[in-house]
Amino acid sequence: MKPAVKRLIFFAALILFWGLGSHFELWHETILPSPFSVWNALIAGFADLTLVYDLVASFRRLLIGLAVSLLIGTALGILLARSKTADDTIGSMVLALQSVPSIIWLPLAMMWFGLGEGAIIFVVILGGTFVMTLNVRTGIKNVNPLYIKAARTMGSNGIDLFWKVIIPASIPYLVTGARLAWAFAWRALMAGELLSAGPGLGYTLRYASDFGNMALVIGVMIIIGVVGAVVDQLIFQRIEKNVLKRWGLES
Amino acid sequence: MHLFIEIQHIDKIYTDKDNNANTVLEDINLEIPKGQFVSILGPSGCGKSTLLSMIAGLTSASSGDIVVDGATVQKPGKDRGMVFQEAALFPWMTVTENVIFPLRKDMNKKQAVERARHFLQMVQLSNYAGHYPHELSGGMQQRVSIARSLAMDPAVLLMDEPFGALDEQTRSRLHGQLEKIWIDTQKTIVFVTHSIQESIKLSDRIVVMGTQPGTVIADINVDIPRPRDAQKQQVTALEERIMGLLKGEIDKVIHEELAYEARR
Ligand SMILES: Nc1ncnc2c1ncn2[C@@H]1O[C@H](COP(=O)(O)OP(=O)(O)O)[C@@H](O)[C@H]1O
Ligand SMILES: [Mg+2]
After folding, report:
1. Whole-structure pTM value
2. In terms of CA atoms, which chain A residue is nearest residue B59?
3. B42: which of A223, B46, B85, B161 fits an S-S bond (Cβ 3.0–4.6 Å)?
């Protein structure tokens, strides 16, 4: 059986179990609303466009934050790979920063940028930057020395060698870095939105929870999960697979 | 014939982190005339790659000089093309893009592509111009790598066990192709190998190296007419002679390895 078919059957069974459990009142509607209530809450949310605005607002923050974090992450990664001093100093700080969830910066960010967009985007940027930095650094350091030797015998050196050989050779790591940066940024965004003003998926999640609208809570959770999975599998894993294949790192 | 590559009193000493000196090459002297196909033959670890890499300008000597076409080697240059044991093609570039990589700054794209086509034809791969390296077999990749080196029209082609990773049949076919390329282009070729048969089949001259430290133990002119597959007797006689020369060296390597195992 194809994995896609297995997956389909699995999710169908899960929803069926959930629906039957609700139907026979194995649990109370206020604890776990039925799939129909969740579906209706989602339909209503999309019909009055609140969920559409939420998605747009969340994606806007994510795209800005992710773009900035990829830029800073790449620049910082290059610096760490090229300078031993930077690696020994800034490098150890990056490792420390990478090990904490970026949401802990939110209180500080709110002091600096106020309660709005700025603070959330700041947290998203911090979420994505360091994992990108570390992957770029590793990618550059792990370039096959044979490529560099070969390029040098063909008259390439200095900046030309760096941009024409070392950077392209590290692209598999850059792609993995970008995929992980997206995953961290997406988590940071949701955490940030839960704690701040709307619109945004995270904000609507908390708003629905405050008003006891559990159906919408679950609906938004599903949207967040689906977006995460779709972007990861349909975009990043696909690119990653193609790159690994082309770069000869996977058959 | 005028001297083209002069290797003068080359020593190479590697020092490890405990400051133990390892003399890899000791007082190597060689003079290679233009157009010669010379093999450097020796057991693995005798410093063949190190020596070749010094001619390429990728490694510096501890003492001594290497002069190529009148100029002392300081750094790598396009006058010396290098083919490694692995093809070292850039996987993100197509075959053509790989071959024009060394030509980018010397000519416009159209000329470079034209030139690439010519050399890909020479290695019989013009049908694969648009393919990526991962779509080619090891032997094909190595031929692209040879075309890429030839395309920059180097005065010398340095080859470090270029066919060492290939299967016997592919290797034998590539021997034929390389011999033809050498005759057509009249390049000076310095060919590193640890295979006695390979060196006899291809070269005008075989420099036999001993190990620990790496020194030249014999310098043999091979005047067996080509193609040499047809000269079984002479080939076998030379093979045996070289085998005799190397026997002591190989014993030395094995002895060293056993001693190393015993120390562990
Ligand atoms: N960068 C290096 N640092 C230290 N030792 C090296 C280095 N490169 C080669 N060697 C040593 O030099 C010796 C000769 O190596 P090499 O030139 O690769 O031999 P060959 O190509 O003949 O097999 C080996 O003992 C190897 O361990
Ligand atoms: Mg070697």
Report:
1. 0.85
2. A149
3. B46
